[in-house]
Amino acid sequence: MHEMSVAQSLVExxxxxxxxxxxxPVRARVSCGELAGISDEALSFAFEAVARGTPCEGMxxxxxxxxxxxxxxxxxxxxxxxxxxxQCPNCGGEDFELLPDAPLLLEEVEFEQGTDxxxxxxxxxxxxxx
Length: 130
Hints:
- The chain has one domain: hypothetical protein PF0899 fold (2-Layer Sandwich), CATH 3.30.2320.50.
- Strand 1 (25-33), helix 2 and strand 2 (60-66) form a beta-alpha-beta unit.
- By secondary structure, it is α+β, with helices and mostly antiparallel strands.
- It has helices at 2-21, 40-51, and strands at residues 25-33, 60-66, 69-72, 78-80, 96-98, 105-111, 125-126.
- The protein is elongated.
C-alpha cells in the first residue's frame, strides 16, 4: 500500500512547515494525476494513522484528482481524455499522444494561527511519489 509512504511524506512536510511557522495545521490539499493509483480512502486512513502524535493529528486532508490530458496529432489541440471514448473533442480525431500524468503535489496547507499570509499556506510541493 503505497498510500502509507505518501502519507508519511505528507506528515513530514507539513510537520516541518508547522514547526517553522509555530502554528497548528488544520487542513491540507493534495492533488494527483488520474493514473497515480491513489485511493482517497486508503490515503485518508494512512494519513490519520501516521499523523497520530504529530502536529498533523486531527487535520483535514483533501485529495483532488487531476484528469489525464492528451494532445491531438491532427489539430494540435490539448484535451481531457475520456478513457471510454478516446477522441479529440475539437476534430473527432483518434490519433493523439497522452501527456504526462499530473504529479502528486502538496498544493496548500492552512494553519490555525500565524501570520496574515497563512491562508495561502505552503505552495505546491512535489512529494516525489506517484
